[in-house]
Known about the structure:
Helix content: 25-40%
CATH class of the largest domain: Alpha Beta
Distance between the termini: 54 Å
CATH architecture of the largest domain: 3-Layer(aba) Sandwich
Number of strands: 9
Radius of gyration: 28 Å
Low-confidence stretches: 252-263, 291-296, 326-338
CATH superfamily of the largest domain: SPOUT methyltransferase, trefoil knot domain
Amino acid sequence: MRIKVFTLFPDMLRPMLAQSILGRAISAGLLRVELIDIRDYSKEKHRNTDDYPFGGGAGMVMAAQPIVDAFAANLPEDFHGRRIYLSPRGRTLNQRVVEELAGEAELALLCGHYEGVDQRALDAVIDEELSIGDYVLTGGELGALVVIDAVARLVHGVLGSDESSEDESFTTGLLEYPHYTRPADFRGAKAPGVLLGGNHADITAWRREQSLALTLRKRPELLETAPLDENDRALLSRLKRAGEVEALLDERGVAYERLSMQEADRWPKEWFAAFVPEAMRKAAKKQCFSGRRHRGFLWRAFSMGYIPDFVGGDAAWERWQAYGIQGGLGYVPEDAGL
């Protein structure tokens, strides 16, 4: 992958391009980034590259001549890559666009400054405009770095393992699952047991569930276009039901903490009698009490669909209160010693 960056401030980019993954990729020849100083092509006495805008207004505008000449001098006639202007007017960068750009052999990035660029320069040398978000920066250099970094990660060999770029937020259409490393117990906060058990099928299932849950909670709009199968849709339905439970308990002012099996065992008979239909209790107990397939919390009976008639609201709350339990689903009593 070859990338040419046309900028007024090449020194803004050099430190980032010399560090970490980008620096190693460039040193190894996997990525080639050339910084082109637009000022070098100015025909003005003092190498000026901007002027006042026609029609008046605040600020300055980058002139067409230095930009057009810089492109002409540095892009060969057989250049077949994409010529991009980093601009808030462009289409928004996302992972799909990154994958599209990574398929190019070459990219040419123009970093704007001041109030913008003379439109005639854009008409002459730019194929498209690209925005990294709905906000305005002082220049396009940071946007260019974002594009370079995102695209470089998809170049074969840059990350060492291609799996690293395939199993991440947005690449799968979902947010990425949480990560943990040693120690397994950090100041009382423990890593999920499923990740320590060595069962790869369980780990894959847990990670998929976490990705779906995080996406549902933080970026639900992504679910509209994410590639989901029937198992994903069924799990999302259960997660939404669990969310209704959390919202109900939050409305009641009850501290929501997921109970361990030890705490849940204090009220299993009452809990199952209140909510789980008799025909489903055997399966529910097996999943929620045995710990199989990382099921270690009583609250999962809600999320796994063992309470088909649960719709939330006062009826569900009163149903629980009828059993006279001082605790509750997700409630840790003050004397629990936790």
